[in-house]
Design a protein that fits this description.
single chain; 478 residues; alpha/beta; Cation-dependent Mannose-6-phosphate Receptor, Chain A; Spore Coat Polysaccharide Biosynthesis Protein SpsA, Chain A; 8-stranded mixed β-sheet; 7-stranded mixed β-sheet; 11 helices; 19 strands; 24% helix; DUF604; transferase activity; transferase; Glycosyltransferase
Length: 478
C-alpha cells in the first residue's frame, strides 16, 4: 500500500513540472509556490547526537518598533515556527493595537522598559539604541526562574526586518559548547562600516547568538556598562563594548548577513561563502531577492527550497558544459548562471558586484570581502535563471528545482562564434538533500554539479550532489 502511495505522489510530482506555468518574466507580486512542502530525508538520515542543540534550546529577542511592526511582522512570519516550536519575544517601544499581532503566527510581544535614565550623546543618533541593546538582558530577566529557562542554551538577537533560517542557525550553534562564553555573529559587508565601528563587532541586524551563561553575565553588568559608553551610536556597538569588558571576543560565522548594501544581492547569494546561510537583513533597502516581485513574496519563494534542504540553500557548485564550452554555476534554491567560455572555479567563487556598499560606493575596496566586476564583454555576461519552483521527488528521495531565465532590459549582442546559452529557457536541478552537510565532524566542501544529457528542447538538466572520488570542478576538452 505504501509503495502505491509513493507511486501516486511521484506521478503527481511529474505532472507539476509538465504543466507548471513558466511565465516568470511577467510574474506578478503573487508567489508561484502556493502549497506547503515537507522536507525530504536523505537515504542515510541525519546524524543525531545525544543532547545536541535544537531549536527548543534557543530564545529569540527581536527588536521592533510600533511604527514599522505592521509591515515588518510579515518578514517574521516567514521564518517563525508557531505552535510552540520556537521560543522568543518581540520587543516593542510602545503598545500597539493587538489586531496588529496575530498570536498564532508570531512571537509574543513585550514592551521594553524605560531607558530615560541612560545618557545618549551621539550627535544625530537615535536613543532607541539604548532600548535595543538591553533586549538580551531583558530577555534573561523574563526567563529568570521559569520552567523554560532550564532548557535555554542560547539567546539570539535580531531585528524585525531580519529573516532567519532557523535550521541553519541551529547547525551553527551545535559547533559550540553552550556552557562556555560565546558571542557569535559577523561583521558588515561594507569595509568603511567596519572601520567606523569594528571588525570585531557582531552587527545586530544580521543577528548574533550569545550563550546563556554569557547572557546572564551580561545582564548583571550591562546597565553599568552602557553608562560608560554614552557616546556610541548603536545598540550592537554597546553590546560589543560590554563584551570587551567581559573579555569575550567575537566568534565570526559568515552566514549571518547584515547586508549593509544597496542594489541586487544576486552576486552575493550566487557565490555565497562555504557556510550555512543563517540570516538576511535590510530587506527593505535592497532589491527583492527575485526580480519582478514584492520583497515579502520574493522571500516567501526563497523559503520554499529552505523547507526542502535548508543546509544546502544558496550553496554554490560549479561545473562545465564541455559540448558548448560554457561555465555553469548553481546556487541551489536561488539561481543558475550560464556563461560563455571557461571561467575557473577560483574566479567563480568570488561574488560579482551587483550591489554597492553602505556609502553607495562600488569599487573593490568598498567591501569587507573579495569581489569582482560585472563582465564588460557582452559575450561573457551570464544568462541568469532564477528559482521558480522546488518540489520533493519522493520516489527517488531527492528534490527537483526549476529555474527560469530572467530577461534583462538591455542584452547587447555577442559576436563570438559560440553557442548562446539563451537557447535554454529553463534549467531543472536534481539534488539529494544533505542534512549532515554542516556536521561539526565533517569538513566543509562544495558540491559538484554535472550537466546531464536531455531531449527536452529549451531545457538544461543538472545533477548536484556530493563530489565523487576524484571529482572536482574541472573543464574537460572533448
Amino acid at each position: 500500500m505504501s509503495r502505491l502511495i509513493f507511486l501516486i505522489l511521484a506521478i503527481l510530482f511529474s505532472l507539476q513540472f509538465v504543466f507548471y506555468p513558466l511565465n516568470f518574466i511577467s510574474s506578478s507580486s503573487q508567489p508561484l509556490i502556493k502549497f506547503s512542502v515537507s522536507p525530504v530525508v536523505s537515504g542515510s538520515g541525519s546524524v543525531h547526537e545525544p543532547d545536541q542543540t535544537e531549536l527548543k534550546h534557543v530564545v529569540f529577542g527581536i527588536a521592533a518598533s510600533a511604527k514599522f511592526w505592521k509591515h515588518r511582522k510579515d518578514y517574521v512570519k516567514l521564518w517563525w515556527k508557531p505552535n510552540g516550536e520556537m521560543n522568543g519575544v518581540v520587543w516593542l517601544d510602545q503598545h500597539i493595537n493587538q489586531n496588529d499581532n496575530v498570536s498564532k503566527t508570531l512571537p509574543p510581544i513585550r514592551i521594553s522598559s524605560d531607558t530615560s535614565r541612560f545618557q545618549y550623546r551621539y550627535p544625530k543618533g537615535l536613543r532607541s539604541a539604548i532600548r535595543i541593546t538591553r533586549i538580551v538582558s531583558e530577555t534573561v530577566r523574563l526567563l529568570n526562574g521559569t520552567e523554560l529557562e532550564k532548557n535555554v542554551r542560547w539567546i539570539v538577537m535580531g531585528d524585525d526586518d531580519t529573516v532567519f533560517f532557523p535550521e541553519n542557525l541551529v547547525k551553527v550553534l551545535r559547533k559550540y559548547d553552550h556552557n562556555q562564553f560565546y558571542y557569535i555573529g559577523s561583521s558588515s559587508e561594507s569595509h568603511i562600516q567596519n572601520l567606523k565601528f569594528s571588525y570585531g563587532m557582531a552587527y545586530g541586524g544580521g543577528g548574533f547568538a550569545i550563550s546563556y551563561p554569557l547572557a546572564k553575565a551580561l545582564e548583571k553588568m550591562q546597565d553599568r556598562c552602557i553608562q560608560r559608553y554614552s557616546e556610541l551610536y548603536g545598540s550592537d556597538d554597546r553590546i560589543h563594548a560590554c563584551m570587551s569588558e567581559l573579555g569575550v571576543p567575537l566568534t565570526k560565522e559568515v552566514g549571518f548577513h547584515q547586508i549593509d548594501l544597496y542594489g541586487k544581492l544576486l552576486g552575493l547569494l550566487s557565490a555565497h561563502p562555504l557556510a550555512p546561510l543563517v540570516s538576511i537583513h535590510h530587506l527593505d533597502l535592497v532589491d527583492p531577492v527575485f526580480p519582478n516581485m514584492g520583497r515579502v513574496n520574493a522571500m516567501r519563494r526563497f523559503m520554499v527550497p529552505a523547507k526542502l534542504d535548508s543546509p544546502s540553500l544558496a550553496q554554490q557548485s560549479i561545473c562545465y558544459d564541455a559540448d558548448h564550452r560554457w561555465t555553469v554555476s548553481v546556487s541551489w534554491g536561488y539561481t543558475v548562471q550560464i556563461i560563455r567560455g571557461v571561467l575557473s572555479a577560483r574566479e567563480m567563487v568570488i561574488p560579482t558586484r551587483t550591489f554597492i556598499d553602505w556609502y553607495k560606493q562600488a569599487d573593490e575596496r568598498s567591501y569587507a570581502f573579495n569581489t569582482r566586476p560585472i563582465a564588460k564583454s557582452a559575450c561573457q555576461r551570464p544568462r541568469v535563471y532564477y528559482l521558480s519552483n522546488a518540489l520533493p521527488d519522493l520516489a527517488l528521495r531527492r528534490t527537483a528545482s526549476e529555474y527560469v531565465r530572467w530577461y534583462d532590459m538591455w542584452e547587447p549582442e555577442c559576436d563570438w562564434d559560440m553557442s548562446d546559452p539563451s537557447e535554454f529557457e529553463r534549467v531543472i536541478v536534481y539534488k539529494k538533500p544533505d542534512p549532515d552537510r554542516w556536521n561539526k565532524h565533517r569538513a566543509p566542501r562544495r558540491d559538484c554539479c554535472r550537466v546531464l544529457p536531455t531531449t527536452k528542447n529549451g531545457t538544461m538538466v543538472i545533477d548536484v550532489g556530493a563530489c565523487k572520488d576524484d571529482e572536482f570542478a574541472e573543464f574537460l576538452v572533448k
